[in-house]
Write a structure and sequence with these properties.
Blueprint (H helix, E strand, L loop, with lengths): L1 H10 L2 E6 L1 H6 L6 H15 L4 H4 L7 H17 L5 H10 L3 E6 L5 H4 L7 E3 L2 E8 L7 E3 L1 H10 L20 E5 L9 H16 L5 E6 L10 H10 L3 E7 L13 E5 L2 H5 L6
Parallel strand pairs: 1-2, 1-7, 2-3, 7-8, 8-9
Antiparallel strand pairs: 4-5, 4-6
Helix pairs in contact: 5-8
Length: about 280
């Protein structure tokens, strides 16, 4: 199966990558376990949640505590990131090809590891951006300076009140630019990336293409998994590849044009035996 995977990627001229949380996990950027305890043991002890994802939905009792948690979450998953050999290996496989990346991940790991920004569409937002919580306007704001100040100045799971960000237009609290409800801001950068993605699909409609799905689970299947299945079904020249831990599957209608590999993405990209 690995030989078939690598031969298919090698011979492909056009590749659409769909990346979910499993890809970041394979790269070592986990939201639970030892990495969570290292950075959030005090929050776990105080509030009882056991991973960063759950913490993102916790109703913290004060904005100072909310931003103490979120500044750490953003910092350790967006700014304090070592190079990812998984993403770099993936780039080496598609470099020189006409590729595009559609991802629900918000950690910026693709761009940080050399992928062309013009070939990326972060559908669910970016840890590196703030937006108005209302929102009163469709614009986002770089948050690196503020986040680093929050990291440096927080104490006892609180940031100084004066560091809490507010919208420069309406004065309401700012929040993270992460899609969780209908208040998500699709700014100019998001819309431009969406346009480039649609142009990529239009340019290669009915042409030979590999749809490479990596680490996509059932949390938001309507963004990557289901559309990839449909595109494979609609295009007789398409090949669908899914790599995941126990979740690599496909409808029977496209099984003859699918390569399904259940295993660790890192090992597979490195050509290791998945058994």
């Amino acid at each position: 199966m690995l030989d078939k995977f690598f031969n298919t990627i090698k011979s492909a001229r056009t590749i659409l990558i769909g990346a979910g949380a499993g890809l970041s996990t394979a790269a070592g950027f986990t939201y639970s376990g030892a990495r969570f305890r290292k950075h959030f043991a005090d929050f776990e002890d105080e509030f009882g949640f056991h991973d960063m994802y759950s913490g993102g939905f916790y109703p913290f009792p004060a904005p100072e505590i909310f931003w103490a948690f979120w500044s750490r979450n953003i910092y350790f998953n967006r700014y304090d990131l070592p190079p990812s050999t998984v993403h770099q290996k993936l780039l080496s496989l598609v470099d020189g090809k006409d590729y595009f990346v559609l991802t629900t991940n918000v950690d910026h790991l693709f761009q940080l590891n050399g992928f062309d920004k013009q070939r990326l569409f972060y559908t669910q937002g970016d840890y590196g951006l703030f937006q108005c919580s209302t929102p009163c306007h469709q614009k986002t704001y770089d948050n690196e300076t503020t986040v680093r100040e929050m990291i440096a100045q927080q104490h006892d799971m609180r940031v100084p009140t004066e560091l809490i960000p507010h919208c420069p237009r309406c004065g309401e609290p700012m929040t993270t630019n992460l899609r969780s409800d209908d208040r998500f801001v699709e700014d100019d950068g998001w819309r431009q990336a969406s346009y480039r993605y649609k142009k990529f699909l239009s340019r290669h409609k009915n042409e030979p293409i590999v749809l490479l799905e990596l680490g996509v689970g059932d949390n938001t299947p309507g963004i990557i998994k289901f559309p990839f299945w449909q595109m494979t079904y609609d295009n007789p020249n398409a090949t669908y590849i899914a790599i995941n831990h126990g979740e690599a599957d496909a409808p029977k209608q496209i099984l003859d044009r699918s390569i399904l590999i259940n295993g660790d993405i890192k090992n597979i990209l490195n050509g290791d035996d998945t058994k």
